Each structure stands twice: as C-alpha cells, then as structure tokens.
Amino acid sequence: MSTSAIAINGAISVGAYFITVRMIPRLREMFIKANLCGKDLCKRDKPQVPESYGVIIGCVFLISMFLFIPIPFAFDEDAATDAVTGGKPITFPHDKFVELIAALLSICCMIFLGFADDVLDLRWRNKLLLPTIATLPLLMVYYVNYNSTTVMMPNFARGFFGTSVNIGIFYYIFMGKLAVFCTNAINILAGINGLEVGQSLIIAGSVIVFNFIELFLGHQVESHQFSLYFMIPFFATSLALWKFNRYPSQVFVGDTYCYFAGMSFAVVGILGHFSKTLLLFFLPQILNFLYSTPQLFHFVPCPRHRLPKYDAKSDLLHISTTEFRMSELSSLGRLMVIVLRALRVISWQEQADGRVVTNNFTLINFLLVVFGPVHERVATEMLMGFQVLCSLLALFIRYPLANFFYATQSSI
Ligand code: UD1
Ligand code: MG
Predict the structure, then answer these.
(1) What ligand 1 atom has the least distance to the C-alpha of 252?
(2) Which atom of ligand 1 is nearest to the CA of 296?
(3) Cα(371) to centroid of ligand 2, in Å?
(4) Are 317 and 311 in contact (CB under 8 A)?
(5) Is the pLDDT reported for residue 172 higher than 80?
(6) Where is the major localization of this protein (predicted)?
(7) For the residues 56-68, what does the mean pLDDT come to?
(8) pLDDT digits (tens, 9 = 90+) for 302-338
(9) Whose CA is nearest to atom 8 of ligand 1?
C-alpha cells in the first residue's frame, strides 16, 4: 500500500504543479489591486512586483494534502468500521492518522500567521513568536499521542548517561525552537530574486533523496514515508513558484512562503524523527544565522534591509553596508566585530571621522566581499550551488557519522 500511496502522492503533486503554474500569472492583477506588492530593489527602475505568493502555494499544497488524507489509510482493511462495536479496529493506525492531521494543522496555522505578517509587517520580536504558536497543534498532539522524550546518546556519552536519556520538557522546547529556526533561517537568507524558493527546493530535494535512501535501506520505513507525503507536493508546488520567482522575478514569495517552507521542514524533521539530519541540510542557513547574530541581536546596527546594493551603471550587486563608531558598541559587540575582522570575514573601512563602515553580516554580502560585485542572477546561482554542495556533504557524512557516533542505526 505504501508504495502506491507514494505513487498517488506523486500523481497529485504533478497535478498541483500544473495547476499552480496556470494560477500564478492569472492572480497577479488581484495581488496588485490589493496592494500586496513590493519594490524589486535590485533593478534599475525598481518595479512593483506582486508579493506574498506563498499564500497561493501554501493553499495548493494544503488542498493537495487534504485530497491525500485518506490515501494511506482508507484502502486498508483496518479502516473498515467494526460491525460489532461500530468503531475502528484497534489495528487501525490512529496515532499515524492524527499525526498527519496535526502536521497539516500546524502548516495551515503557519501559512495564516505568515500571511498576517506580510499584511501587517510585524516586528522581529513577533516574527520569532509566530512559528512557536504554529507548532502548538503539533506539540500538543505529540504529547497526547507519542510523548516519547527520550533521545539516543552518542557512543562517547554512553558511559555517563546510558544508551538513552529522557530529556522531558527540553524535548518540546527543542521541537519548538527547531520550527523557529527553520522558518526564520530561510527568511533571513533572502533579498535577491529566487533565493528563498531556490534554497527551499534544494533542501526539499535533499530530504526526498534522504527519505528514499532510508526506505531503500529499510530504516524507519513509516517515518520516511510520512516525510515523503509532505515533501513531494511541497517540492512540486515550489517548483511552479520558482518558474516565476527566479531572475527576473515576476512574483515575490513574501514571508508567508518562508514560514510555510520552514514549517514543512520542521514538521517532517520532528515527526519523521530525523531532526539532526535535517539540520545538516540547513548548513548554509546555519552559517548565515551565526554570521548574522551580531546584527540580529543588535550588538551591531541592523538596517531594515540588508540585501546587497544595486549599481544601475554596471547592473551588478555590491555589498550593502552598516556604519557605527566602535565607542557606540557594547563591549560584547566590540569583541564580535574585532573577532570577525581578525578572521577577515567582513569588509572594514575607517572614515576620517572615526566611523567604521562594514558590510551587513549576511551570506550574500559575504559572497560579494570574497568574489567582488556580481550579477543578481549569478549571486543566486552561486548560493544555490553552495546549498547543493552542502547537501552532498551532508549526505556524504550522514552515514559514516551516524555509524561512528551511534552503535546502532538510530534516528538522527
Ligand atoms: C529579511 C532580511 C532583510 C532582507 C529581506 C529581503 C534580516 C534580519 N532580514 O527581512 O535584511 O532585506 O529579508 O527579503 O536579515 N526583495 C527584493 N528582491 C527579492 C526579494 C525581496 O527586492 O528578490 C525586497 C522587496 O522590496 C520585498 C522585500 O524585499 O518587498 C521583502 O522583504 P521582507 O520579506 O518583508 O523582509 P524581512 O523578511 O523582514
Ligand atoms: Mg522575508
């Protein structure tokens, strides 16, 4: 049944792709009329582009998944109602069924909150809160349904802690934080045409490849099937969006898409029990987040937009900058910029009046510091290339690493 469920899921996804491709251009006027647009900042005439298309993609994804709900269950003998009791037989996988519904509820909630963010332009504080709220359905169902908060210990720690440790409430905190990280990490590696969708496509593709490898090896079959049920339609709908969002963008995805994508990854990582492997696929986002921390936590001034600066003459992207006096920074802020400067990972220019000008701390700007000004399309391609390399590296180290750290094949 499971192989046919994956095949039906694939067929629904192909349909979703074609429907999305047809829908996107037709809805442009509607978005512009509703004033849901943003300026394409890296173009000569800064055209208005319809924004928040994530809400369309999210809806097509949800409809596809709603149609898919009965497929893994309904054709099973266990799904038939018991003639005597009137209920489902105990062999019916109630837990799996409710997990699927709860996962969809969390993603649905995230799309709704993401769209609210796009319309209301929320502050950073609230942006961190939204994914936490959206994970609640998932965490509550997990609590009632499964409530396993035990983690396997790596070999070197087993002498102290034993094979596994029950970490209780911290497990829930970890799951909530994973959703906050996945959603925001995609949202802050953004600002040039196609990057939000491009990185999400590569992460989704990597998860799909990983799921198929695990299925082939016969590891945790149900978890990886569950992940595929979500990732295949996600990939298909995102691919349709990519057609219109890549350089030169005809539509923007908005925070709705970044949240929707991050939440979908968090859900499959959590319920598929491979959150640590998932994080391996987020390597560029982790690097971008770590590099960004001085600005995200306001140790260094952070402008509203950190995307690169467009030079109309050469049609190339240059680094965007932030300015400060060393004396204005806290001691921790000073230490951070001194270390980053010593590591030569930021540009550094001292003005005559003592002000320091450095690039904004994002991976896109770092790329420009290293390679000099490049065209917007090339910058997206380079970052996507880096994402692919990181995924290959992740897959390459995943198996030897798991065997090295964990005696048995565990869910990592
Ligand atoms: C995040 C980043 C911000 C970056 C922005 C770009 C942090 C803390 N925040 O903010 O630095 O500038 O994303 O998305 O790192 N845009 C383009 N070209 C594109 C995509 C977006 O010009 O290819 C511009 C458009 O004007 C669009 C706007 O960015 O309207 C969207 O920004 P928004 O998603 O609201 O920014 P944040 O997610 O808050
Ligand atoms: Mg955004």
Answers:
(1) 20
(2) 8
(3) 25
(4) yes
(5) yes
(6) endoplasmic reticulum
(7) 98
(8) 999 999 999 999 999 999 999 999 999 999 999 999 9
(9) 188
- As a whole number, mean pLDDT of residues 144-153 equals 80
Q: Kindly give the distance from the C-alpha atom of residue 291 to the centroid of ligand 1, in angstroms, as a whole number.
A: 17
Q: What number does the ligand 1 atom closest to the CA of 193 have?
A: 23
Question: Mean pLDDT across the chain, nearest whole number?
Answer: 92
CA 245 – ligand 1 centroid, Å: 14
* Domains in the chain: boundaries: 3-273, 296-374
pLDDT tens by residue, 69-123: 999 987 766 667 777 777 777 778 888 899 999 999 999 999 999 999 999 988 8
Backbone angles phi, psi at 323, to 5 degrees: -125, 145
Predicted confidence (pLDDT) at residue 225 exceeds the cutoff of 80: yes
Which tokens in the block code for residue 167?
A: 């970490």
Residues with CB under 6 A from ligand 1: 38-42, 51, 187-188, 190-193, 249, 252, 255, 296, 305-307
**Confidence grade of residue 128 (pLDDT, cut at 50, 70, 90):** confident
**Residue 191 CA, ligand 1 centroid: distance in Å:** 5
Q: What is the mean pLDDT of residues 7-12?
A: 98
